[in-house]
Amino acid sequence: MLRIPAFSLALALSTTFALAAASDPAPGGTYKTDPSHSSFNWSFNHSGLSHYTARFTKVDARLSWKPDKPETSTLSVTIDPLSVRTDYPWPEKVDFDAEIGGEETFLAAKPITFVSKTIRVTGEKTGTVEGLLTLRGETHPATLDVTFNGSMAEHPMMGVPKIGFSATGSIRRSEWGLDFAIPELGDEVTFVIETQMVPADYSLR
């Protein structure tokens, strides 16, 4: 008996989102991260056996979006290093997140920032963002490969414009002085980012 209403709800939602996706795109302006629909995961080679993966939960990105000329857009990102989440299985023995985020050997409790310098359009929905990454107080160039997933002038459930992106990138952590346990723990750190963005003046609470 419950399957029919559930199916009807799913059909209604899919139709609503399809209509919204076909509507006008989001206008230009300043946008910020919607944290409930965004993720920032990172990984590195661990002993040649797996790619250890963790994430940051407090990422604040600000995008000055120019849809007609996306290459003239600008991006700035701030990450709280103490928001690292490793899902270490024995927190009663070791506060692994606090060690990774706060100790001098690792992220030293210093904000991680990225500021774009050049944006290049490489395809209909792809591009690169070159900028300066500050990690542990040191600043060096870094590049993100970005896919523009689309936008909506009015999200059907939130009532505001939304923009969506996926991005990947990698750095060699040793360039930022983070050379602990190399090569047992890989030097290359890979990022995988998924984000939806809303107007900067929109209250998320």
Q: What are the secondary-structure elements, in order, as H or E?
A: HEEEEEEHEEEEE
The total of helices stands at 2
CATH class: Mainly Beta
By oligomeric state, this entry counts as single chain
Described by the principal axes of the CA atoms, the overall outline is globular
What's the CATH topology label?
A: Lipocalin
Largest beta sheet, briefly?
8 strands, antiparallel, barrel
Number of strands: 11
Taken together, the total number of domains comes to 1
Mean pLDDT: 91
In the CATH hierarchy, the architecture is Beta Barrel
Can you identify the CATH superfamily? Lipid/polyisoprenoid-binding, YceI-like
- How would you classify the helix and strand content by structural class? mainly beta
